[in-house]
Write a structure and sequence with these properties.
The protein is mainly alpha-helical and 209 residues long. It has one domain: Up-down Bundle (Vanadium-containing Chloroperoxidase, domain 1), CATH 1.20.144. The protein is 72% helix and 0% strand. It contains 8 helices and no strands.
Length: 209
């Protein structure tokens, strides 16, 4: 079981690279445009409340708030299953962020220009750093959660990953394929975190229930 975590992690990282190549070749332009046109929040056509909500979701998933949440969750899982779990969550979040930035630099994909950006951005588009962070942090929280809180943690993970992904597309700052790539990258590092944590702690590896 533990070995399979490494295998799936490697497969996901490979898939992120392959998707990046496909994106760079322009093979997903039509699909990305279709999704962006359907979901982008055009000012004047959307309620200010919905825009503010999506901006709030995006704010939580990036910058300083993201790292505050990461630290709090690392402390929480440390309490639940020991120091190794806390280090696994914090370390996986940091490494996935570095990997995301490296891939952004390598692929250098332009941001969408469907609408005026409704959130501040200063880096390339693929893969989404917000999606990467949401996947690694919330999935690790769910995997490492105390059995008492595991169902709630998985529900939180699913909600935050989906909301975060939709917010980035709807605010006009990411293509759908950026979100897919970031989510796969974050999941890969979450699996690595579970593998590393499980090496020193029994009973960590379990299915979401």
């Amino acid at each position: 079981m533990k070995r399979s975590l490494l295998i799936w992690s490697a497969i996901l990282v490979f898939a992120v690279v392959v998707l990046g190549v496909i994106v760079s070749a322009g093979w997903l332009v039509a699909a990305d445009l279709h999704v962006s046109n359907a979901l982008s929040l055009r000012v004047g056509q959307s309620s200010p409340g919905l825009i503010a909500f999506m901006q709030g979701v995006s704010w939580i998933g990036g910058g300083t708030p993201r790292w505050i949440i990461c630290i709090l969750f690392a402390v929480l899982v440390w309490h639940w299953c020991g120091r190794r779990c806390g280090i696994a969550l914090a370390g996986a979040a940091l490494l996935s962020n570095l990997a995301s930035n490296a891939l952004k630099f390598a692929f250098d994909r332009a941001r969408p220009d469907i609408i005026e950006h409704l959130d501040h951005v200063n880096s390339a588009s693929y893969p989404s750093g917000h999606a990467t962070s949401a996947a690694v942090v919330y999935l690790l929280l769910a995997w490492l959660a105390s059995p008492r809180w595991r169902a709630l943690a998985w529900a939180l993970a699913a909600t935050m990953i989906v909301l975060n992904g939709f917010s980035r597309i709807m605010l006009g700052v990411h293509w759908a394929s950026d979100i897919v790539g970031g989510t796969m990258l974050g999941t890969a590092f979450a699996l690595l975190g579970v593998w590393w944590a499980s090496r020193g702690t029994k009973g960590i590896v379990s299915s979401p229930r």
